[in-house]
Write a structure and sequence with these properties.
Blueprint (H helix, E strand, L loop, with lengths): L27 H6 L4 H17 L6 H26 L7 H19 L3 H26 L3 H24 L13 H8 L2 E4 L2 E4 L1 H18 L1 H11 L1 H6 L4 H27 L10 H11 L11 H20 L7 H26 L1
Antiparallel strand pairs: 1-2
Helix pairs in contact: 2-13, 2-14, 3-8, 3-9, 3-11, 3-12, 3-13, 4-5, 4-6, 4-11, 5-11, 7-11, 8-9, 8-13, 9-11, 12-13, 12-14
Length: about 350
């Protein structure tokens, strides 16, 4: 009978002591199975191939540009929402916060007859303050994030409608297209870039930039370790000195920053804003993050996965149009994708845990 010496065992050192698991070699397959976005990437490839076969115009450059734009409008918010979910929390006010951001910029600039950029700056400060408020109330009261942000959602919904009607006399804002700074602000938040004869919305660049920054934070910074720690085990994270309050407040402010970008795009794309917009979009952001591999329970996920989830959303919403199907079926396909992606992500995660 042959025996294995301690030096030949991957889990021990030459003197028989157990090796640090962080120094053990991991096969490329194990690393791949351990990636949270693996399931969503497989799903994205399947959706792309499906519509490439079914829809004649899907593979055209202009069509792909439209898909990327639709994905970016969701992806800009899905990225910070994914980070918040990795941290173990939700934000049900994210959808209406986008509208609040746009309303503040428009009404402040119009009522104060100020340069548009003044309104944009005020909107940023107020939006970040709302995000900080969510985080502060959550950490101080220990209430579930569902309750805290549901309350914020209802308050913002009422404020959006009530203040807009009180100030403007209608449910929408006044036109600000002739005010100073409008064109430069539109260039930053709602312009179109032409590459190779194909038009791309600048929101795609905002989206890519947010994914890159969020991935760097999660994988290369101490703050990223804190996010995974508070989402995985809050008590253990507190015990080892993770700044729990600062981390969660920062995550909510990250969602607010994404809402500010999306709100400015909404304003400078259409000039006026309807005060009732945004209700229900928070669920779409969460769906994109979950499809991208984020767990509802926290502590697992990636920014890239949320981008892939948003891309699946964009391909499906526009692919149905290109295939000339009844768009009423879109929500059905979205729900089916959510269930299938969640099952696939769960299976991939179990396989990864079984191989480690």
């Amino acid at each position: 009978m042959t025996t294995t010496t301690p030096a030949e065992r991957p889990e021990t050192t030459a003197d028989g002591a157990r090796a640090d698991e962080r120094l053990l070699k991991t096969s490329p397959l194990k690393k791949l199975l351990g990636r949270p976005e693996l399931g969503s990437v497989v799903g994205a490839v399947a959706v792309f191939l499906f519509f490439a076969i079914i829809a004649d115009h899907f593979l055209r450059a202009a069509s792909l540009s439209t898909v990327l734009y639709a994905s970016s409008t969701i992806g800009i918010m899905a990225v910070p929402v994914a980070l918040l979910m990795i941290g173990g929390e939700f934000d049900l006010s994210a959808g209406v916060l986008v509208t609040s951001s746009a309303l503040i910029s428009s009404m402040f600039s119009y009522q104060m007859t100020a340069d548009i950029w003044v309104g944009v700056g005020v909107s940023l400060l107020v939006t970040l303050a709302i995000g900080a408020f969510n985080g502060f109330v959550l950490t101080r009261t220990k209430l579930p994030s569902f309750i805290v942000t549901l309350g914020t959602f209802l308050m913002l919904t009422g404020l959006n409608l009530g203040l807009t009607k009180m100030i403007s006399g209608t449910v929408s804002t006044k036109s600000i297209s002739d005010m100073d700074g409008f064109e430069s602000a539109r260039a930053v938040f709602a312009s179109t870039i032409t590459i190779g004869g194909v038009d791309f919305k600048i929101t795609i660049l905002w989206w890519f930039a947010l994914v890159a920054v969020a991935s760097w934070i999660l994988l290369r910074t101490r703050a990223g370790n804190w996010i995974f720690a508070v989402g995985g085990n809050e008590s253990a994270a507190r015990a080892v000195g993770v700044p729990l309050y600062r981390t969660k407040i920062g995550l909510y402010m990250g969602v607010a920053f994404g809402a500010w970008i999306s709100g400015q795009h909404l304003l400078f794309s259409f000039d006026v804003v309807q005060s009732g917009e945004g209700v229900g979009n928070e669920l779409i952001y969460i769906i994109a993050a979950v499809i991208g591999g984020c767990l509802i329970t926290g502590g697992y996920g990636s920014a890239i996965g949320s981008a892939v989830g948003a891309l699946i959303f964009g391909m499906t919403s526009k692919g149905i149009v290109f295939a000339q199907w009844n768009p009423d079926w879109f929500k059905f396909f979205l729900g089916a994708m959510l269930l299938l992606a969640t099952l696939l992500n769960t299976w991939v995660r179990k396989r990864a845990e079984a191989t480690t």
